[in-house]
Write a structure and sequence with these properties.
This protein is an alpha+beta fold. The protein has helices at residues 2-13, 38-45, 49-55, 104-110, 116-123, 313-319, and strands at residues 27-31, 69-73, 79-80, 89-97, 135-144, 187-191, 216-220, 247-255, 266-270, 278-283, 288-296, 309-312, 326-331. The N and C termini lie far apart (65 Å).
Length: 332
C-alpha cells in the first residue's frame, strides 16, 4: 500500500503545472490517476469539486477514468496573481511557455492582464529576454499545505530568481553584460488609450476596435538618483547603434507612448529584427534621423497591414511625421 501511494504521488508531482486557455478562462490539465475522485482533485487543487465538474461539463455522479484529462479552473479561490493567500495556503508557481512571435504584453493580456513588470520580477527577466521557449511564471496556485500533495512544490514569491531561472533546458544562457554599460531603465507596457488625433497620409488608419488589439503604451522611468545626461542628437540610443549593413525602407506607423518626450528614449515595433536591436530611422521629407530600440514585432492586427514598423509618438514627432503614416529609411 505504501509503495502504491508513493507511486501515485510521484506521478502526480511529475505533472507540469502549465496554464492553458486565455483570460478569463484559465485552467490546468490534470491526468487522472488510479483511485482519484472529484473530491480528491478538489483537495489537490483547492477548488470545490462541483466547480471542477461543471467546468468539464460533467456531474459529480459521473466517475473518472484512469488517464482521462480533466481541466482544473484557475479562479480567485485557488489562483493568485496579486500575491495574496490565506495563512494555511502555500504558493505553487504555474507556467506559460513563450511561443514564437509572442512577447510579454500579449502574455499579460492573455493571463488576466497581470502587469508586465510583475512578470519581469517573478522571472528575473526583462522584455528583451522573453524569447520563444522560455518557461515563464504567470501566477501561483494556492493550495492547502496540509491537504494537497502539490504543497511540496511550494515556493515563496520571487523578487528575483536565479539568473537562468525560467529558461528552457535547450536555451543557452545570455552572455554577461559589460560592467561599464549603463543599465537599462525598467520598461512598462500598458494598453494605449484611444486617440482622436487626425491621421494623414496615403491611407487613413481606423481606431482599434478594442483595447485588446491596441498597440502598447511604453513608459520608461530612469532611477531618481541618476545624474542628468545630455541627450545625443537623434535620441538616447544613438551611442548604442551599430550597423550590420542591413537597410530597408517602408511605411512607418505610430503608437502612443509616454517615453521619449523628455529623455529621448525612442522605441519601435518591427518584424524580423531581434528584440533589443537599435535601429537608425531617417525621414527623407525632413531629413531628420532618430535611433530607436526594437521592443518586439508588429501587433497582428488590421492596422499593421502595409507597415514596415511602428514608432513611439515622440520618435515620430522628432522626425516630423506627427501622427500620420510616412515613408522612412531604416538601417540596423
Amino acid at each position: 500500500m505504501i509503495f502504491i501511494l508513493s507511486l501515485f504521488f510521484s506521478s502526480l508531482n511529475a505533472q507540469d503545472l502549465l496554464v492553458h486557455g486565455t483570460t478569463p478562462d484559465l485552467y490546468l490539465i490534470h491526468k487522472v490517476q488510479r483511485g482519484e475522485t472529484w473530491y480528491a482533485l478538489s483537495r489537490t487543487y483547492n477548488i470545490p469539486p462541483k466547480d471542477i465538474s461543471a467546468f468539464n461539463n460533467r456531474t459529480l455522479e459521473s466517475g473518472l477514468q484512469v488517464g482521462q484529462e480533466i481541466k482544473i479552473p484557475l479562479r480567485s479561490v485557488n489562483f493568485s496573481q496579486n500575491e495574496i493567500k490565506a495563512a494555511d495556503e502555500v504558493f505553487v508557481p504555474v507556467y506559460h511557455i513563450i511561443q514564437p512571435r509572442e512577447w510579454l504584453y500579449r502574455i499579460s493580456q492573455n493571463h488576466n492582464k497581470v502587469p508586465v513588470e510583475t512578470l519581469e520580477r517573478w522571472n528575473n527577466i526583462t522584455a528583451n529576454d522573453a524569447v520563444a521557449g522560455t518557461r515563464l511564471i504567470v501566477g501561483f496556485l494556492k493550495v492547502k499545505s496540509n491537504q494537497s500533495s502539490l504543497a511540496s512544490k511550494a515556493t515563496g514569491i520571487p523578487n528575483a530568481l536565479a539568473s537562468n531561472a525560467g529558461r528552457s533546458a535547450n536555451q543557452p544562457s545570455r552572455p554577461a553584460e559589460p560592467q561599464n554599460k549603463e543599465p537599462e531603465p525598467p520598461v512598462t507596457l500598458k494598453e494605449a488609450p484611444r486617440s482622436n488625433a487626425p491621421i494623414e497620409g496615403p491611407k487613413k488608419e481606423s481606431a482599434p476596435a478594442s483595447a485588446e488589439k491596441t498597440p502598447p503604451v511604453v513608459t520608461s522611468n530612469p532611477p531618481a538618483s541618476a545624474p542628468a545626461q545630455p541627450i545625443p542628437e537623434g535620441g538616447y540610443f544613438r551611442n548604442q547603434f551599430t550597423s550590420s549593413g542591413n537597410k530597408t525602407s517602408g511605411i512607418a506607423g505610430v503608437f502612443k507612448s509616454t517615453s521619449g518626450w523628455k529623455d529621448g528614449k525612442y522605441y519601435a515595433l518591427m518584424n524580423g529584427v531581434p528584440v533589443g536591436t537599435i535601429i537608425r530611422v531617417n525621414f527623407p521629407s525632413t531629413n531628420r534621423t532618430i535611433y530607436a530600440k526594437v521592443l518586439g514585432e508588429l501587433p497582428d492586427m488590421k492596422e499593421s497591414e502595409g507597415l514596415t514598423l511602428r514608432l513611439s509618438d515622440a520618435a515620430a514627432s522628432e522626425l516630423g511625421g506627427g501622427y500620420q503614416k510616412f515613408t522612412v529609411e531604416i538601417r540596423y
